[in-house]
Structure formats: structure tokens, C-alpha cells
Specification:
Elements (H helix, E strand, L loop, with lengths): L2 E12 L2 E12 L3 E5 L6 H8 L7 E6 L2 E2 L4 H7 L1 E3 L11 H11 L5 H11 L15 H13 L5 E5 L7 H16 L3 E6 L2 H7 L2 E6 L2 E7 H6 L4 H11 L4
Bound molecules: adenosine-5'-triphosphate.
Adenosine-5'-triphosphate binds next to strand 2 and helix 1.
Length: 241
Amino acid sequence: MTAILDARNLTKVYGDTTALGGVTLSVEQGALFGLLGPNGSGKTTMIKLLTGQIRPSSGTATVLGRDVASDPVGVRSLVGIIPEQETPPSFLTPEEYLRLVGSIRRIPDVEEGMAWWFDYLEFGDKRHVLCKDLSRGTRQKLMFAQAFLHRPVLALIDEPLINFDPIMQERVKEFLAGYVKEGNTIFLSTHILEIAEEICSDFAVLHRGELLSTGKVAGVIGEGRHLGDYFLSLVRTGGHA
Ligand SMILES: Nc1ncnc2c1ncn2[C@@H]1O[C@H](COP(=O)(O)OP(=O)(O)OP(=O)(O)O)[C@@H](O)[C@H]1O
């Protein structure tokens, strides 16, 4: 299998806080990779480093064969990103925002893609409403649409399901599962371990900036355990589940 994402000793230090302390991991093409960890364990920092939003203190990250620190723009032009707690521009409508994304990313069939997302996530009735007047869930739907409009081979998503109701969670899970079946790769961070167990093929557990464990979700289930129980015992024992 081909590694589509590769982090080597990735480290980020803020003053006297080590947000990420030398993480090495690799993600294969076609994986639905779940990055798990308690609050403040370094998940968002990891996603920011992998998408060139911040520079590492040391270590390297290669995404789709490109070194992220030396070519962040190249990496961002290829991948789809949904940052944590991000909202679309308040002064644009969903339609205007998606057209803007379409023109920046030079997407030929943007109208078609846009119509698909309005229909799939059921927010076409809000297409002309300014984003500042949208509910949190609808803004998250729009962030989903912008991330996948160019059909990226790799998408990095920070907490994808937190603002969605159960119906939309099902729909998004179905989309993500189908998307990786087509050979694409998803890297997501989440606190919702039941959903990670349901949809992820691979996982990594971060704790206080350190990688405690990485492996196949099927391996944990095959031992008769739930990912949530495994996660809790790992974090409580500092890595000895
Ligand atoms: N810009 C920053 N300046 C200083 N410290 C930071 C900064 N960004 C993150 N940190 C610190 O780095 C650590 C990891 O934060 P990060 O946001 O990556 O965690 P997380 O796992 O995503 O947490 P959560 O699940 O709560 O969103 C925390 O201690 C956080 O306070």
C-alpha cells in the first residue's frame, strides 16, 4: 500500500507547552484514519501541521509526496480541509461561497457539485441566506461541501460530526465510507469513539502530545474490545491498554 501521509518526529512547541512531542505515523491510501485523544492532546495541532497552517518546531510531514513545510500551498491546493470550529465567511451566502471556492480551485463543474451537496445535506433552501444567519449545523454542512467540492484524494477533517443531528451524522458517515471505497483517503480527528469504531479503518491515540498507540480498528474489535474502552484504558495507564 502507498503511504499518502507521513509524519516523522513531528514536534510543535509553544513556549513551555509541547503541543506535539515527536509524533511518527503514516497513513495508507484508502484509509479512513481516526486521530483520537482527550482535550488538549494535540489533535488540532497535528492537523494544522499536516496542512501547513503552522510550521513544525522540528520533524517533517509529507502529504501526497510533498513536504508540507516547504510547499504548504501545493499541499492545500490538493487536499480538502475542514478546520475545527471554522465558519464560512459571514458576508457571503452558501452559493456565493461555493462559487468562490470553485473559482479559486478552478473546478469546472461547480454548479453540479454545489447542487449535489445542497441536495445531499438538505440545505438548498439556505443557498441565498448570508452565512452569518445560518445555524451552526448548516455552516458545518457548508464547510463539508467546500472541502469536498474538488473531490480531493485526501481530506483532513477536525471533528467532522460534532454539530450534526443524528440524521445528518448518518448521512455524513455514509458519505465518508463511500468516499474511501472509491480509493480516496480521510484523516479525521474525533472525540466520538462510537462513530470512530463504526467508520474508521485505522486509528491513532494521542495523549499529551505523545502517540500512545496506532493500529487497525478491526484488530481492537477482533480482541473483543470496543475502541472506546481501549482508548480509556490506554489514556488512564499512559499507554498500557
Ligand atoms: N497557538 C497556541 N499557543 C499556545 N498553546 C497552544 C496553541 N495551540 C495549541 N496550544 C496548546 O497545545 C496543546 C494541544 O492543543 P490542541 O488544540 O492541538 O489539542 P486538541 O487535541 O485538538 O484538543 P481539543 O480536543 O480540546 O480540541 C494544548 O495544551 C493547547 O493549549
